[in-house]
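Now for our target.
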Amino acid sequence: MNIVIAPPIKETYEKDVQALFPDAALFWLEELDEEKRKKALEKADVVLSRNIVGDIRKEEIPLLAKPAMVQTTRTGVDHLDFKKLPKDIRLYCNSGGWARGIAESACGMIIALNRCLREQLYDLQQGKFHILGYHQKLLSEQTVLIAGFGGIGQALAEVLPPFHCRLTAISRHLPKSPLLHKAYTMDQLEEAVKEADVLVLALPFTKETEGLISRHILSLMKEDSLLVDVARAQLIDREALLDKVKNNPRFHVAMDVWWEENEAYPKDGDPLLTYPNVIGSAHNAEMSSTAHREALMNALHNIRAFLDGKPVKGKVNRKEYEA
């Protein structure tokens, strides 16, 4: 069994990888020259890559057609141009690899919005000390709808029960968990959002989910509900959300993801953040001192399961991403 490790992680994780795959021949691309990289990829049974485009060279991409498994350490694959990938690539994303941090971040965002922390902070900074007057809410009195019940959605479902909220979930396939009070499929989205006090987006960004939270769906949400997005900003109609936030100060939003990010992020900030009923973070909900190790080990254990003939997670259907 030949396993190619594309990310430059040998110094830190060599012992972990060897312990999981004592029966495999390991090829670390970081220490190979151009010709040896090519040969390693040509005979690879499994390839581990961070995100394909970062550690596999352009001229090496066609070689990814042969391996029985190409496993990424990232969860999302919407950054990939599938037209440039081999048609026969067997790609697996890192489902659940970053879920623990994202779930805790989503939970923290819900609480921060419920307790009106941004509004209170602003008032305190202005010298205003109001004990009353904020529309604070209790999570224990709310129905939380998790949209997307993959690794992140399931992790959030495990975090929330101590708060005694009514937990619901919606996904393409009917979510199944003893933690849920109710489950929906995507054709029941309108019904589900009408009942929710909190909507958390944990869906992948695909052709079908782009713009899913439309002006119409936003109009169905309760006047004082919360919207938390830890998935992709493109799931939401941007202009419709701006209008909703502007015209309804009791509607609260938390965003970890944005329509423009990194160098493309607006120099004067996203317009959404000019409103006091919005909080945000810089697409780092997953981060912690252990996040990178957890994500890598999750991907490696998925490879181990694949080699052992056990159930695996994260198989990517390219048709969901191709234009």
About this structure: The CA atoms of residues 101 and 288 lie 7 Å apart.
